[in-house]
Amino acid sequence: MLEIRFHGRGGQGAFTAARLLGVAVTLFENRHALAFPSFGPERRGSPVLGFIRIDDRKISDRSSITRCDVVVVLDDTLLEPQVFNGLQAGGLLLVNTDHKKLPISIPDQVRTVLVDATALGRQYLGRPIANTAMLGALAALSEVVTLQSLLAAVRREMKGSSVGKNAELLEVTFRSLGGQIT
Amino acid sequence: MHGQKAFLSGNEAVAAGVRLARPHVIAAYPITPQTTVIERLAEMVEDASLKTEYLHVESEHSALSACIGASAVGARTFTATSSQGLLYMAECLHYASGGRFPVVMMNANRSLALPWNIYGDQRDSLSLLDCGWIQAYAEDAQESLDLIIQAYAIAEHPDVLTPLMINLDGFVITHTYELVSLPSQEGVDAFLPPFQTVNKMDLDHPMSLAFTAGPAYNQAFKQLQHQALLSASKVILDIEERFGQFFGRNYSGLIETMHCEDAEFILVTLGSVAGTVRPVVERLRSLGERVGLVRIRYMRPFPDLEIRKALAGAKAVGVLEKDISFGYEGTVFTNVNSALSRSNVKPSRLLNFIGGLGGKDISAADIEHLFLRLKSTDDGETVAFI
Predict the structure, then answer these.
(1) A window 27-56, beta carbon within 8 A of B
(2) B77-82 and B25-28: which strand pairing?
(3) A26–B178: do the CB atoms touch at under 8 Å?
(4) Which of A11, A87, B337, B358 is buried most, with the most CB atoms less than 10 Å from its CB?
């Protein structure tokens, strides 16, 4: 079972990223997933979480996610030590930032990758939205999901011109991080 | 009869099920965490994929009253609520069941104030166990959707004619997205024909509905109501069997058991937390522990025979519930204990675990600890908060 936590601020699409990833792995990879937001009132700008559990078989455990294989941070102002809670040794930390080095010490045995996803969002979507680019990075840097499934999920879930723009953004981010299109 | 797959939240699955069931009238008032059900239904009405009379009412009391009125002319009706909203409906709950109006309602299980809290526990619906409604508890989004479709067939059955409340744990089911298989509209149309009843306001066949009955007759009506709920046990099994033939998904009636045949230590619970118990049971089984799970799917009618059978060989039984009847014990425990008291075989230890109140997380480690408590021989409290 894979467990992933997205950190963002209300309005940045942390849960949308988790849900889109869920669509990709369930509908296009024949796997199972439970995706859920941090429960409660939703406020723009306040710290929010998105969670997803992914497995090859049906997942029944709906208790809180306390261990993570991957942590995705959509906003580097959220980089506090609790971001690393439960992140496993050998786990992946993906941070959207324009810094070259993080202003916080990272736990040992965590693979950290920095992506300027906001800049990519500005360039390809015309808005500083980071979630799609971070999913492209996830596909390039891990075995969690394939680019093809993410593209299919975008085509299914988005409408109008957003489809093409987000698909292009996924591909560009994927390639820029060394992802190979098979 | 098999339709498409979709990645939906529990609330979205409920809305999808309601659309497939083609209700004539929907009346509801928004309340967290039910709101997205009626938002999705409103969007379906807006995009004309659902043809229904969607009533914007000013309260939950009015929502159920409107459903009762519509049901009285033979319409299929739906409403949804949660927590304080359900309590605000309390007067009308008895009107619906006493009048034998087969309204179907979704309730998002949520804590009750005070302290004010929007998170999930089951004190709202369990405190209304005596209102004469059939009460079902779902474990996931797929079961929620399937229960909606089955609910109309059960509630509208001539032997039943009783309203039915489907409970989903707030947020943990209502707001969690998962893979759901959507039955086809043709399949549901064939499985669930339009509601037909002779008990309706009809100018050509006038009859009295929602009338007064004095001391001479009142109890007779209540006995009929009781009989109807008891009859629902068999109707539920029949409808589930037919549902399985149509859609390929099978349900197990009033309870579901896991490894109870030879289990010495059994947890009885209901709702989504059963999903946390499952992998713990599997893991402990792989270590040679004889543990099992009983998931109660219907609290009314209560599965007393099924529970007695499932628990017949157990040494120790724990009832885990997100509810407390203050000053005594959990209501589910009271019901399970009552069922066991009618049987010769009683487990030597019967414990009540109260947890998850106001949304408090119940982890797999917590569940494992409960099985340890069942195995131990200490004489701790019968009713324990976890």
Answers:
(1) 27, 32-37, 39-41
(2) parallel
(3) yes
(4) A87
Q: Are residues B237 and B267 in the same domain?
A: no
Please count the structural domains in chain B: 2
Asked if B52 and B140 sit in the same domain, the reply is yes
CB contact under 8 A, A60 and B278: yes
Of B6, B177, B276, the CB nearest to A63: B276
Phi, psi of B70 (to 5 degrees): -70, -40
Q: What CATH number is given to the structural domain containing B263? A: 3.40.50.920
Question: CATH second-level architecture of A2-176?
Answer: 3-Layer(aba) Sandwich (3.40)
Same domain, B240 and B259: no
Q: Which residues contact B164 (CB under 8 A, 6 or more apart)?
A: B102, B103, B104, B105, B133, B134, B135, B136, B151, B154, B155
- Quote the CA–CA distance of B164 and B151 in Å, as a whole number: 6
Q: What is the ipTM of this complex?
A: 0.96
Examine the domain organization and report whether B211 and B296 are in the same domain: no
Together in a domain, B143 and B228: yes
Query: What SS3 state is found at B217?
Result: coil
Residue B146 corresponds to which amino acid? D
d(C-alpha A19, C-alpha A97), whole Å: 22
Cβ atoms of residues B26 and B18 within 8 Å:
yes
CA–CA separation, B318 and B306 (whole Å): 16
pLDDT band for position B327 (50/70/90)?
very high
In this complex, is the C-beta atom of B362 within 8 Å of any C-beta atom belonging to chain A? yes
Q: What are the residues whose beta carbons fall under 8 Å from the beta carbon of B319, sequence distance 6 or more?
A: B267, B268, B269, B330, B332, B333, B336, B350, B351, B352, B353
Mutate to test the interface with B, among A15, A29, A61, A64 (most CBs of B within 10 A): A61
Q: Do B259 and B238 share a structural domain? A: no
Q: What is the mean pLDDT of residues B212-227?
A: 97
- List, for chain A, all residue ranges whose pLDDT scores fall below the cut of 70: 182
Whose tokens are 């990758």? That residue is: A113
How many angstroms separate the CA of residue A66 from the nearest CA in chain B?
Answer: 10
Domain ranges of chain A: 2-176
The pLDDT, as a whole number, for residue B40 is 98
